[in-house]
Amino acid sequence: MPAPLMTYLVIPLVKIVVILAVVILLAAYMSYFERKVLAYMQIRIGPNRVGPRGWLQPIADALKLLVKEDIVPSRAEKLVYFLGPVLVVVPALLVFSVIPFGPAFKVAGHVVTPYLTDVNIGILFILAVSSIGVYGVILGGWASNNKYSMMGGLRSAAQLVSYEVPMGLSVVTVLLMANSLSLVKIVEAQQRSGVWYVFPGFIAFFIYFVCGVAETNRNPFDLPEAESELVAGFHTEYSGMKFAFYFLAEYANMVVISSIATVLFLGGWLPPFPNALAALWASPALAWIPPVAWFVLKMAAFLFVYIWFRGTFPRYRFDQLMALGWKVFIPVSLVNLMAVGLGVLLIGGPR
Amino acid sequence: MRFWGFLASVIPFELAQGLGVTGRFFFKRKATIQYPEVKPVPKDRFRGMFGFSEERCIACHACAKACPIAIIHIQDHFEEVEVEGKKRKKKVLDRYDIDVKRCMFCGLCEEACPTKPVAIWLTSKSYEAAAYERNERLYFDKGRLQSWDGVRPYPGVLTPAQGQLPEAPGGAPAGSAEPKP
Amino acid sequence: MSEPEALKPFPDSEEMEISFGPQHPATHGVLRVIVKLDGERIVDAKPVIGYLHRGTEKIFERETYNGTIPHTDRMDYTAAATNNQGLVGAVEKLMGVTVPPRAAYIRMILAELQRIASHTIWLGTHALDIGAQSPFFYTFEEREKILDLFEEYCGARLTLNAMRVGGQPYDLPEGWTGRCRTFVDQLPARVAEWERLLTANRIWKLRTVGVGVISAADAIEWGLTGPPLRGSGVKWDVRKVFPYDRYDEVAFEIPTGAGGDTYDRYLVRMEEMRQSVRIVQQCLAKLPDGPVMAKVPKVIKPPKGDVYFSVEGPKGELGYYVVSDGGTNPYRLHVRPACFINLQALPEMVRGQLVADLIAVIGTLDIVLGEIDR
Hints:
The structure holds 3 protein chains of 3 kinds.
Chain A: H1 3-41, H2 57-67, H3 78-94, E1 105-107, E2 110-112, H4 122-130, H5 133-143, H6 147-178, H7 183-193, H8 202-215, H9 227-230, H10 240-265, H11 278-282, H12 291-312, H13 318-347
Antiparallel strand pairs in A: 1-2
Helix pairs in contact in A: 1-2, 1-10, 1-12, 2-10, 3-5, 3-10, 5-6, 6-7, 6-8, 6-13, 8-10, 8-13, 10-12
Chain B: H1 2-10, H2 13-26, E1 51-52, H3 62-66, E2 72-83, E3 86-98, H4 108-112, E4 120-121, H5 134-137, H6 142-147
Chain C: E1 16-20, E2 32-38, E3 41-48, H1 56-62, H2 69-73, H3 80-95, H4 101-130, H5 134-154, H6 176-198, H7 202-208, H8 216-221, H9 227-231, H10 238-241, H11 262-286, E4 305-312, E5 317-324, E6 332-336, H12 338-343, H13 346-350, H14 355-365, H15 369-373
Antiparallel strand pairs in C: 1-2, 2-3, 4-5, 5-6
Helix pairs in contact in C: 3-4, 4-5, 4-11, 4-14, 5-6, 6-11
């Protein structure tokens, strides 16, 4: 097989298949994880009937949603109604193409990178692509021809637009420190400097994570699908596989936000204090831990916090949510950006 | 003082406190009862499925009158019976039907029953009364009230043959019918 | 049948009309609220009731006096004991019967446990409406313990049917007082735990402070009773002003709020749970011996006349107006439901606020449709 074919077709295709499979499975099992953790916080035991300890529950759910009748409201805008879930799920999965799950390694002489591609504008790509998802939400909400859906869609649009700004600003602080837009380079910069960016940029980290929670419409910012107000928000009318797509996208987005937070602030696949404790991590007792394991561990911690939030907090009201975004997070992240910029300029940043 | 107030308003301590509460519950013992495998045993006075004893019943209709929703249907007739050489008229029960599907398990019938021990009682500790066909399965005549045809016995249940709990209100005096523990 | 006014269209306005309910996750049953919205702001809200109407008051007229008791269980199905208490109290007042002290104390214990149980449901669902999921499960865990106590006493968990005209049908089972004391003694710690989750929480405060405000004067004008009235700062509690059973023999406070908003009502109810614990503890300590049933005829025939008797239910003043023609059945038995009258203030309380506040206000009024529609 000619080398270019291998490099440009076979390996990427295999990676695409692997990443898609893993991500979809991860999103499905994320629902199991959430139900289980939430149940434990609420002194219940959660799903435990399908398979041992309920491990097959996500599969059963997926099967159920697949075979369920797909109801389209008679007054719905059919084409847009169909497009809604697609527009949500495609960007959510597309983002995974640039997320680095680990460093490059060698298999049988080939250098394999555990990410699909390392775009030099990776973070911009993510911000651009992931914000397309809001179209799916608002179009789906509008096309359902249901007042609750419509309000859910509108809320979602306003929420996503306003929280994208502080989120972007807090991401910029990382870019200032790392001097790159490529996610792989950002992790490598953290390795060089020997310090995770969460320490110099903890305000940015906090803002990023809170905005991430808001971006994924999760509690306490789950207004677009606030059950007690809007029944199910924008996906009230959706059923069957279309509903499953919204569901999948929500969980995939949570994974995305968690992985980006891991990459930007927690050093991606790096172990804690990669330089200061380098000897410890290289010791035979710990050297077997693959870098991907660190990545997954950090991501899981974020996902756990997501669920923890959901188990604890009440929901903001719509105007309070907007006020929080515009009056608190945007000014704070702006000031923080300037402070970090000044720090990078004066002391050269964490290099 | 003002500084601390400001700090508390900026840093969400109280949210962390809330997270602490849910975090602690994460490790607490779970309250779930795995129902079909583990069957909770009701308390002694639990008003469950009906028990009925035809020999105790004197067909006085008190239960039917006490029933707030009139679901007890009784039919009787008089028969001449010979008691100690004398001819007497005695009420004989023809039908004693309870439309269980409409019952609200208030227990007033049991309280109204004048016999000792009572002839109709609810303290059977039974709660699995679901049925696929309510008109057939949840309409009990006097035979089924005594045999509980179709009611599955499970731990704790007292079938009509086992009688009532002596402790239960309106229950049998001790020694009339030994309940199973 | 003419259409309700709120159903008419608005051709020349940008207002949107949404029908909240009767099938909606947050309307506590089958309440329907027709909401006129300008964006998310509520222009007007009209509660539409009657989806759970069962003609209970008409059914009462067909029943014997004791036969009505199971039906009262089903009015406010979260507070069967206080419903029973009101009805038997009314009939006893009409007949001039005094219940034995032990029966009165048992009634008070049951009623206060019921008040705690009802408030735990309220807290769980109210928090759930506002988005906090977990309190629902924590409160229900405690409620289950109360229901276990009820089950042990009278054999039912929800629809108790636990009182009779003239006293109590059964005495307390052996060991019940001990178990009840264990429960009430540990409850304040649990209430404090729920408060740690919510009281200081900034999101909870944002959602409740200044929401659904009703002034003391307005609250009285609307005829509000119970926590919605006390939240506005009016010290009014039927247990204090017209003591029934033996409430004059126990010490307890009436918690009141200041601002009359949702947060105040929340605090009032939380404090009421603690006060109920206090009352139960005192009752258990003072519980006299003796019979539990007064001498009443087997067939209850109150003299001709009419009487109004009310108790402080968990939701507010629950009154019974009994008219007797001397027969075995009530000639007319009217109920003054607390929820029905509290609900009337809903449009006043939500006008000009946001959709999310409507949910908070419905939650804070603590309505039960079984009692509203009867």
